[in-house]
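Bumping with the actual sequence this time:
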Amino acid sequence: MKKRGSVTVFIALIFVCISALICALLESARTSSARLYLQTAGDSAIDSLFSRYHRVMWENYRIFALESESDDNIGDLICEYMKPYVKYSGMYRIQNPNVSLNKKICLNDNGGMYLEQEIIDYMKLGTFESIFDGSPDDLWKDIEDAKSMEKITSDYGLSSREAIDVEKALKRLSENIDAQEKIKLKMKEALNTKNLGELKKLSDNLKKKLKKIPELVKKYERKADKMSAKLREIEAKNSSDLNKLSNSNKEYIEGEIEKFKDYVDKDSERRLEVTALSLQSESMITELDNLDCDIESLQSVLDEADEDDEEDYDSEISEGWDRVSDDIYSLGEMKLNCKHGIADEDKEDKLKQIKDMIADGVFSLVIPANRTVSDKSINTLSLPSNAATGGYTGRNLAERLLIDEYMGEYFADFTDDINTPLSYELEYILNGDSSDRANLESAVLKLLAIREGLNYMHIIRDSAKMQLATELAAAISGVLCLPQITFIVKFLIIAVWALVESAIDIKGLLSGGKVPVIKGGDDWHTDLDSIFNILSNNDLGNSDEFKRGINYEGYLKMLLYIEDPVKRNFRMMDIMQIDIGVGQKDFLIKDMVYGVDANISCGAKRLFSDISFFAGQFGGLNLGYETEVRVEKIY
């Protein structure tokens, strides 16, 4: 019987095709699984990499960051962590992993916003007590009002001093005129006693007084011109700050400015009378020259008289004395009829001395007796703030508060008295100077400006204090002055009073005390008598009664709340770098990695398509291939 194999061949072909399909499906499944395996290996490797966070950075500042000097270092570490996965990849057959970084995010990128994010993420986990009772933005409206008030009152305070200088110049003129009248009285007395030598001497003295008049007039004119120019300059300079004030403060300041303008207008009227004194002095000097001639003629008659001609002698002598008498009694009378001057120049001078002493030497006055100022300084050339980056985006109110509270928690200030490369860290973040002293001085001046404006607003809202200031101004200016000068002196008194109170506030804060932002009557420490004691004592007194309000750190945090965020962030990183650098000399913030985005590629070998019996069926495929996955990680 003839045998046929067609069925067998057909079945064999079907089996080959089915086997090839099954192997292809298995290879496809294995390849997909290999990719998933590689993704798992990559994720595990990058998680392991990020577990290498800088321990000191976390312990000191609660910031997670991976220290890495280069991209290659990150790639090598990821490959190292993938070795166990490669070794035990089994049927997935991955090998030779290679890492290429798409992006590396460092803490100092984008204006330090990633550092901020770390801070915010950490601070959200805890609770804190904010220094702001209500909305910080509302509080800062009051603070900004105070800062604008301080600028305006300081400038007009200087102008008030110049107005007082004008009054003093007029008083010097008045004193000269009074001295002239006294000389004239003595001349009349010498005339009655016929003391020709005394008359000559008094005439010379009167000339000296008259010759000083033009210079005194010019001095007054210079003072008046300077005051007018300064007032116009101040008005233009402070127009924007004036518009920032609240309605009540703006109304008060505008009222005070009007009084300055009224004073300038009144002084313009006085100027006509004062200027005329120069010409009058010249005329009177001419009259005295005539008197001197008549005195000399009379002296000649007396010296050359002939006793034999006694009748002619007596006649000439008599005529000579008559001429001298006429000259004396016909001398012009110089007067200053306008109101002018300052009654108590000594007290007014003390006000200026107090203002100058605090303005120029407030730093030495406010440092507590039991503390010395740190003389530490740092080299800023290698600090992160010298390479600030852009791309920063703003934060909402809650996030800004969290950052503000973080700085108070993890950075020291003057009152903490710690021993670190810079002892005054919050002050550095606020000001960015290279030395502790410079940073503390800048912080003190900023706080003084705020407190001065707030204290000024307290005084003008307190009727009792305003009454005391008015009474002292009236006593200093006197009843003979222009009414406007009393208001100007009061302006100076309030400015000095607010400044002294502010300096005492700062000393209390630096001593560890508290000062409320908006003071009540019980929080006030000075009166108008005690402020003058500062000159004799050269001391602001004790600072023990500061129990209510916000402490020094709180005031610094208020200032930092509105500080430029990029500067603030990089100065925080400066402090972190120099502090950690004490123990780790090569520590740099720029090496601190916050996030990584990378591609991991691996070589792989096929499995099911490489079985020898079926190898021919997949002859068009390469035995090796590459697969790639993407991994991302941020703290």
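The tokens above came from a reply further down the thread. Strands lie at 66-67, 94-106, 514-515, 550-551, 592-605, 624-634.
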